[in-house]
Amino acid sequence: MLHVVDVCVSFDGRTVLDHVSLHVGGNEVVALLGPSGSGKSTLLRVVAGLQDVSSGVVRWDGTDITQEPTHRRRFGFVFQDEQLFPHRDVAANIGFGLRMAGTDRASVASRVSELLALVGLPGFGERDVTTLSGGEAKRVALARALAPKPRLMLLDEPLTGLDAALHDRLADDLRNLLRQAGLPAILVTHDPAEAARIADRVVHLGDLGSGSR
Ligand code: ADP
Ligand code: MG
């Protein structure tokens, strides 16, 4: 269970996160809504360990992880402008984190097949990533993030910039995928319809700060 407690972040003396608190429990998918520039990505980066806080604490299952480096948190990320590694095929992209962690080839191969099935791309392992459609590339990015079995998934506007039909199809798939993967997630979005479509619970960043309690 994730607890963000009273977190403040300022840039150049301007407060972006003002005593923000958020908890995400069990396997719930929480959508974090707010207008552009309100600090959604900053909060996600705090959770990811990519952004220092001026004050406040991040806890996982009661343990203070505020100073824990990103790679030790075992959280998965998918960002809007997710770049796949262009000189590797789909399987190598998905298996990248596992190989870095020293997982043996056979285990990587079997996990990659499992993930390709999960994201609806069975048989795509040997495809050159530069030949994928936008929707397929998103699925590969999601599979890559899920591969090391993260304990929390962080998604920053993963569906922004897709055309409407593809957006709605991927939103439904993402909802199902996160439930099948059985892990908690925070989905950042500026789109209330997308939030309602995917998440179990919708929170507004503006309601998480000190002024609102
Ligand atoms: P959102 O994701 O809700 O659009 P962000 O978290 O990206 O908002 O940004 C919130 C505010 O903080 C914006 O005004 C942005 O310009 C500012 N900001 C974000 N990161 C930095 C940074 N590294 N340095 C200075 N200002 C930043
Ligand atoms: Mg953002």
TrEMBL record:
Coiled coil start-end: none
Claim: DNA-binding is one of the keywords in the record: no
InterPro entries assigned: AAA+_ATPase (IPR003593), ABC_SmlMolc_Importer (IPR050093), ABC_transporter-like_ATP-bd (IPR003439), ABC_transporter-like_CS (IPR017871), ABC_transpr_FbpC (IPR015853), P-loop_NTPase (IPR027417)
GO terms of molecular function: ABC-type ferric iron transporter activity; ATP binding; ATP hydrolysis activity
Record flagged with keyword Transit peptide: no
Domain ABC transporter residues, every copy: 2-213
Keywords of this entry: ATP-binding, Cell membrane, Ion transport, Iron, Iron transport, Membrane, Nucleotide-binding, Transport
Alphabetical list of Pfam families matching this protein: ABC_tran
Gene Ontology CC annotation, any one: membrane
PROSITE patterns: ABC_TRANSPORTER_1 (PS00211), ABC_TRANSPORTER_2 (PS50893)
Protein name: Unannotated protein
Taxonomic lineage of the native organism: unclassified sequences, metagenomes, ecological metagenomes
